[in-house]
Amino acid sequence: MKTQWVSVAKPAEMLPETARVVRAGGLDIALVRATGGFFALDNACPHSGGPLGEGLVSGNTLTCPLHGWQFDCGSGRCLTEKRSPQRRYATKIDQGLLWVEVPDTSAAGQPDSERAEWIQAARLSELEPGTVRTVRAAGSPVALVSTSEGLCAVENACPHQGGPLGDGSAEGTTLVCPWHGYKFDCKSGECLTDARYRLRPMETRIEHGKVWLRLRQASSPAQPSVDRERSAVEVWKSAKHGIDVWSDVLRYAGAATPMAKIEEADLERMKWYGYFYRKNNDNDHYMCRVRIPGCEMTARQARALAFVAYESGYSIVDVTTRGNIQIQGLTVDKLPGVRAALERVGLTSRQSGHDNVRNVTSHPYSGIDPEELIDTRDLARRIQEMVIGDREFSDLPRKFNVALSGRSDPQAHAWTQDISYVAAWGPNGKVGFQLLIGGSQGQSPHLAWHIPVLVGPEQVLEVTSAILRVFRELGYRHNRHQVRFRYLIERLGPDQVLVEIEKRLGRGLEVFPKPPPRPGPGENFVGWFKQKQRDLWAVGVCVAVGRLTWDQFEGLAIIAQQYGWGTLRTTCDQNLVIPGIPAAARQTVGYALARHGLTFEPDPVLRNMVACTGKQFCNIAVTETKGYAYQLIESLRRRNVLLYGIHIHMSGCPSSCALSYTADIGLKGGKIRRGLRVLDAFDVYLGGGLAGGVQMGTLYKKLVPVDQLPNLIEGVVRDFYAHRGETETFSAYWRNKLQGHRA
Q1: Which letter, b or e, does each residue of 299-336 get, where b requires 16 or more Cβ atoms within 10 Å of its Cβ?
Q2: What 8-state DSSP symbol labels residue 225?
Q3: Contact by Cβ (8 Å): 350, 335
Q4: Residue ranges per domain, the chain?
Q5: CA 543 to CA 573: how far, in whole Å?
Q6: Each residue of 136-188: pLDDT tens digit?
Q7: Rounded CA gap, 105 and 216, in Å?
Q8: Are strands 3-9 and 97-103 parallel, antiparallel or unpaired?
Q9: Quick one: DSSP state of residue 164?
């Protein structure tokens, strides 16, 4: 292939041990100045597409800013996982400039001058400085911008959500999208709001008072291979379905095969059975994620899980924000026995990871809430039964979250699910569900779209099936970073997605334009809750940062069996609820909890702290979390910081498994350089929340070292108490204060 040398920077502009993203030959490249010199690699991390050019450099090692994957700059070798090296490009310094050698795409086919044509687009007299307009060239819309530095032309569709840039505004050479305010440099096409996006700039010239555009026509290469159209994950998924890995798991277990000798694709496929390999600090061990459909399990099931944790794992049990139970520390020889133990009590870990429908959640008070319109637990179990073992629904483009709420008040993170069913009274006086789709809490958080239909309880399964088929059939599979369901909705539009759903149903759904109500005051699932059943109560038990010892978990199961209905509920804030306790037994239950080191009335700091698994056990985490959360709890207690109703959620990476973006104070893990050291640090978000209106937090400070978090949190909390309005919440106060703020 013919190559070309492209100048990308001046060497003096780059400090030692730094990286940046540059554009050369139509490619995004991570340009690195390491101890061994200047290096250039493909910018997209092969793990989750993280921008390597924004990562940290230490010696000759480049660390991805998203999940901490490390690469040797000289060879491109991944130091975190065994996989193909990252593509490298030659560099040189000539005439005081730094050059990168990249493929010469203009050399293919006809000469460049023959593959481009100049087209008249407008009259110069019509374009005063600051003017932005849409023109058509060769049948395509183009955004034409008149700046003080001349004319610029870029493609018209904003790459964020397709907004018409020609209807936007210009600030100097900055073009602003009219839909969501995304900003672009109209000369280079770079997005100033989010570096992942970029526009294609076009050449302009002026002749005889007319504006001409030069459109480059794509040559006609042969059709790319399927492997080039799909991500590497899709390639190994098509080679062998995740469901088909069980015979291999039995073989690996029988031979006690070390993790290093198991094919990487099989390690990923094992997630179809709920087994997650651990390589960070826990090599050769696995985690088992157990599904708890409807967020309810029996005491017998809980005791079985406690025994598995004791006999086969590290004797700890984690409650997740998705209502799962996770058991850490399993060795490969234990995995078949763990599956058998789960199935004996009616539990499963199947399809709890990777590109599957994850745990189907219900409100923790389903069936006991005086305000609920319908009990959704049975629907959650039936959705799980529909998808488990189904090859169609276990081959989605990406993971998929489903939630049901029997209350008309859409709490419990209804707005950040791929599908949410929110109970409502229909016009005929019957209960149905309002439909929310396309929400997410991941690396690009997004609130769901309301689809103006009413879904009857008897329709929930077939509507869920239709939506999953729309996603499976129409969702992209090429870029793992942008294939969640929300991206399909952004591409087609919510109206067209509804058309596709109804097409697969074979009929229309009942029109119901009324939107769900705004959420009411925030819920807290710790403490006593009066059930709708006469003289019965549910107790919410505080599980510190979601982690229990096996004997604590077994103790809760025994309490549920002796004093309640023999069931336990998981909550989205990592706690547990025991329902069905007679009023006369409340004091006895309180003493029983205390004997196990647990409580239903924790101090406000412990009550309001949520933390994901963190780097201790998670492959993709950048930082530790649960240990830091314990330290933060103790520090805030010593400082007497009052967190009444103020929730702190700590995630170890941008995936936000701790639901950080919708917390009052959200913490997202990263790395920062201080002299010769690389420290754990956290981006701090303020103003998120569910109470009174679902909001994503605003980035307040970037990469605050972990030892500085107590000072910062104390400061923002005391600022709130000193200056808040009479009825103003913490989140509302900081949302107002941070309007227009840039971290």
Answers
A1: bbbbbbbbebbbebbbbbbbbbbbbbbbbbbbebebbb
A2: P
A3: no
A4: 3-106, 116-216, 366-508, 607-737
A5: 9
A6: 776 567 899 988 778 899 988 887 666 778 888 888 888 988 767 778 888 88
A7: 12
A8: antiparallel
A9: B
Q: Which one-letter amino acid corresponds to residue 136?
A: R
Between 150 and 437, residue with greater pLDDT: 437
Kindly provide the b/e burial profile for residues 160-187, where b requires at least 16 CB atoms within 10 angstroms of the residue's own CB: bbebebbebebeebbbbbeeeebbbbbb
pLDDT digits (tens, 9 = 90+) for 191-211: 887 776 788 888 888 877 788
Cα(447)–Cα(417) distance, integer angstroms: 8
In whole angstroms, give the CA distance from residue 323 to residue 573. Answer: 9
CATH topology of domain 116-216: Rieske Iron-sulfur Protein (2.102.10)
Which helix H or strand E contains 487, and what residues bound it? helix 485-492
Q: What is the dihedral of CA 382, 383, 384, 389, to 10 degrees?
A: 100
- The dihedral of CA 452, 458, 459, 465: what is its sign? positive
Domain 366-508 is in which class? Answer: alpha beta
DSSP per-residue codes, 262-293: S-HHHHHHGGGGTEEEE-SSSTTEEEEEE--G
CB-based contact 455:433 (threshold 8 Å): yes
Task: Tell me the CATH number for domain 3-106.
Answer: 2.102.10.10
User: What one-character DSSP code corresponds to residue 144?
Assistant: E
Residue with tokens 């560099």: 91
The DSSP element (H or E) to which 581 belongs, if any, is: strand 576-582
633's enclosing H/E stretch is helix 626-638
For the domain bounded by 607-737, which CATH number is listed?
3.30.413.10
CA atoms within 13 A on the CB side of 601: 7
Cβ contacts of residue 385 below 8 Å, gap of 6+?
A: none
| Neighbouring C-beta atoms of residue 21, cutoff 10 Å | 15
Q: E strands along 126-284, which residues?
A: 132-137, 140-147, 150-155, 169-171, 174-176, 183-185, 201-207, 210-216, 275-278
Q: What residues are paired with 176 via a beta bridge? A: 169, 183
Q: Is 39 helix (H, G, I), strand (E, B) or coil?
A: strand
d(CA 19, CA 347): 48
Condensed to tens digits (0 to 9), the pLDDT of residues 219-230 reads: 333 333 334 467
Q: What is the pTM of this model?
A: 0.78
